[in-house]
RNA sequence: GCCCUCGUAGUUCAAUGGAUAGAACAGAGCUCUUCUAAGGCUUUGAUGUAGGUUCGAUUCCUGCCGGGGGCACCA
């Protein structure tokens, strides 16, 4: 990569200047915000100045002189600017070779190696059975899917796991509600069984506020379920089946697929082992009838494993899940949980416990936390029954794009919703706002899709006019070295770096914001002028750039899980 | 009470400790006989507050103020 060339250039210069190697910090190359400040900028002179007691600008001048001694052909200009920045300008020839490389690599352009030989389990989406798939689950689904895509593109072997919430006291609650206010036969007959189940769940919480005994009944039923009670098991099975049918529909609409969907119930028979491990090490003890892990110096509050009635709690199931994963995918496998930030403490406790148990080392279990969708008035909650069902949002978005044909409207609507989620850093909350979610203009998914379709349309035209075949002639012409490099080119070659960073930081939004900038520089490049033009000697290269753009954008959209339509 | 997060234009978001804090939407003004105007070009407008570290702070540290979340039988 070009970064390595520049880095070596600087290192050699420092070596020639006989600067003490121990004093040299990590070489930091960044893209100046202002394109006129060059393609890369390095602050090494300013960082180093004090350590070697020299004036930063003078030191920078010396470094530049050394670099120019052995200037690689990729660099056209190096200069000192501002307080002591060293700015690198890449040569027009470099950009031409980049464009060629993109065309050659196609859908492989941007693939990275940071994950080579490593395995990662990405747990995301994880909706709860018998609960609605609301807009709240959208974040985990969309962000987790993008992270899995990015890591896969970066060389990791990825396992996508949907950790279904198909076990726990909630089922006790549901069973109580069904038996009290409905029946399993009635639910099965219903046209909208999930809605009915949710209504029952909400009713349970309303009633439980008045009558605390209900909570105990619910726990009792869950205990029965854990003891394989036939009636409980039957109701549970039916609920799981009905829910899965609903979820499948949504995943299909969203274009999200999983490798595994073990769900919490899968670990029911694997918890005993964990309890044994815990007992062996003596890291948990009984308190008020329950069984909990206590942490040294009360680093964290205690984490419960078993309730006083002996039934399990999610923490124990999570431990079992991770033990299982490490066994199945190897002890070096990285585990990523894309789960809401309200569970941060839980995952800290979990990581600490797993370290004590020897299940993990440090750093191989990562909680990627996200804020949630909120109403201006407050949090959404299934218990209160005020969540917004994702299906409704999708329908609404598609309606808004109804001036397209049906298939395109679906693509655009889903793209708008996904992008709205991916364009921002995941840690913050999103205030639910129909207008923003369904935004089809500006910084949006449809803007990217539109730009892609536009590029494809130009390429169709170019093919008709056989413009691209003239490229060889153009690029062999040395005069092209004197041309002004376009903003679009200055964006295109950065894609691999962006992918790498997004992967390292588990942050798809770096890709999203980059793509907006990229598309905007393309549209700007296109402006109101023509790209396909036989009278313009640069037209062949413009077509090549358009194709390179379409490739990079398509690869980027794929990482975000957003479809790229050929026509709109 | 303790812990975790987030405070950036009117609004929604950016900014690996760097240069003149970028976009988009909304507002004002242009721009379509064109390969796609869901486009392009002008323009107005922002770092919660008080300190500290640094050559340099939106970014790191501390206090305060505000929003959100968590802290034993939900997940």
Explain what the structure shows.
The protein is α/β, with parallel strands linked by helices and 568 residues long. The protein has 22 helices and 14 strands. Strand 5, helix 5 and strand 6 form a beta-alpha-beta unit. The longest helix has 25 residues. The chain binds one RNA strand of 75 nucleotides through helix 2, helix 6, strand 9, helix 13 and strand 13.
Helix content: 40-55%
Average per-residue pLDDT, rounded, comes to 91
Number of strands: 14
* Strands ordered across the widest β-sheet: 1-2-4-3
Computed structural class:
alpha/beta
Largest sheet: 4 strands, antiparallel
Summed up:
The chain is of the alpha/beta class and 568 residues long. It has helices at residues 2-16, 44-51, 56-69, 92-105, 135-153, 169-181, 184-189, 193-210, 213-226, 230-254, 271-281, 314-329, 344-357, 390-400, 406-422, 434-437, 445-465, 471-476, 487-492, 495-504, 509-526, 539-560, and strands at 29-30, 40-42, 75-81, 85-90, 119-123, 157-161, 284-287, 290-293, 303-306, 334-340, 365-370, 373-375, 378-379, 430-431.
Question: Secondary structure elements and their pairing?
Answer:
Blueprint: H1 2-16, E1 29-30, E2 40-42, H2 44-51, H3 56-69, E3 75-81, E4 85-90, H4 92-105, E5 119-123, H5 135-153, E6 157-161, H6 169-181, H7 184-189, H8 193-210, H9 213-226, H10 230-254, H11 271-281, E7 284-287, E8 290-293, E9 303-306, H12 314-329, E10 334-340, H13 344-357, E11 365-370, E12 373-375, E13 378-379, H14 390-400, H15 406-422, E14 430-431, H16 434-437, H17 445-465, H18 471-476, H19 487-492, H20 495-504, H21 509-526, H22 539-560
Parallel strand pairs: 5-6, 5-10, 10-11, 12-14
Antiparallel strand pairs: 1-2, 2-4, 3-4, 7-8, 8-9, 12-13
Helix pairs in contact: 1-3, 2-3, 4-22, 5-20, 6-8, 6-9, 9-10, 11-12, 12-13, 14-15, 17-21, 17-22, 20-21, 21-22
The protein binds one RNA strand of 75 nucleotides through helix 2, helix 6, strand 9, helix 13 and strand 13.
């Amino acid at each position: 990569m070009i970064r390595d060339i520049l880095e070596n250039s600087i290192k050699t210069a420092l070596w020639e200047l006989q600067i003490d190697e121990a004093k040299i910090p990590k070489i930091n190359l960044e893209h100046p915000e202002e394109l006129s400040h060059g393609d890369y900028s390095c602050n090494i002179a300013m960082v180093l100045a004090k350590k070697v007691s020299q004036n930063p600008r003078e030191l920078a001048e010396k470094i530049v002189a050394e670099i120019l001694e052995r200037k690689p052909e990729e660099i056209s200009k190096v200069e000192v600017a501002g307080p002591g920045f060293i700015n690198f300008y890449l040569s027009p020839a470099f950009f031409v070779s980049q464009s060629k490389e993109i065309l050659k690599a196609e859908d492989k352009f941007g693939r990275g190696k940071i994950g080579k030989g490593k395995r990662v389990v990405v747990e995301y989406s994880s909706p709860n059975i018998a609960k609605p798939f609301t807009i709240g689950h959208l974040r985990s689904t969309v962000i987790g899917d993008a992270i899995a895509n990015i890591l896969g593109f970066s060389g990791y072997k990825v396992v996508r796991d949907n950790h279904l919430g198909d076990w726990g006291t909630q089922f006790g609650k549901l069973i109580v509600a069904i038996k009290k206010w409905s029946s399993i036969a009635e639910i099965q007959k219903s046209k909208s069984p999930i809605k009915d189940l949710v209504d029952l769940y909400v009713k349970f919480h309303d009633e439980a506020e008045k009558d605390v005994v209900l909570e105990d009944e619910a726990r009792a039923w869950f205990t029965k379920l854990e003891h394989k009670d036939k009636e409980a098991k039957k109701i549970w099975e039916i609920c799981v089946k009905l829910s899965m049918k609903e979820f499948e529909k949504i995943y299909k609409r969203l274009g999200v697929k999983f490798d595994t969907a073990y769900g919490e119930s899968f670990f029911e028979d694997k918890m005993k082992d964990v309890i044994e491990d815990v007992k062996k090490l003596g890291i948990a003890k009984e308190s008020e009838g329950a069984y909990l892990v206590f942490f040294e110096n009360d680093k964290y509050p205690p984490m419960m494993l078993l309730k006083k009635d002996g039934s399990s709690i999610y923490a124990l199931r999570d431990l079992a899940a991770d033990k299982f994963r490490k066994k199945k995918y190897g002890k070096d496998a990285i585990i990523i949980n894309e789960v809401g930030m309200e569970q941060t403490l839980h995952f800290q406790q979990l990581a600490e416990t797993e370290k004590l148990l020897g299940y993990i080392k440090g750093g191989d279990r990562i909680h990627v936390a996200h804020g949630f969708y909120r109403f201006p008035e407050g949090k959404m909650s299934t218990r209160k029954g005020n969540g917004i069902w994702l299906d409704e949002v999708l329908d609404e978005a598609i309606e808004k794009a109804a001036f397209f044909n049906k298939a395109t409207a679906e693509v655009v609507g889903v793209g708008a919703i996904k992008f709205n989620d991916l364009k921002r850093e995941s840690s913050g909350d999103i205030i639910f706002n129909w207008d923003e979610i369904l935004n089809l203009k500006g910084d949006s998914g449809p803007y990217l899709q539109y730009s892609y379709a536009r590029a494809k349309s130009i390429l169709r035209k170019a093919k008709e006019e056989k413009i691209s075949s003239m490229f060889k002639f153009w690029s062999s012409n040395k005069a092209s070295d004197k041309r002004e490099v376009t903003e679009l080119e200055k964006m295109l070659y950065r894609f691999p770096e962006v992918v790498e960073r997004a992967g390292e930081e588990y942050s798809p939004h770096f890709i999203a914001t980059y793509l907006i900038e990229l598309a905007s520089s393309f549209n700007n490049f296109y402006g109101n002028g023509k790209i396909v033009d036989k009278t313009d000697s640069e037209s062949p290269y413009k077509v090549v750039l358009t194709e390179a753009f379409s490739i990079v954008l398509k690869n980027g959209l794929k990482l975000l899980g957003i479809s790229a339509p050929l026509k709109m």
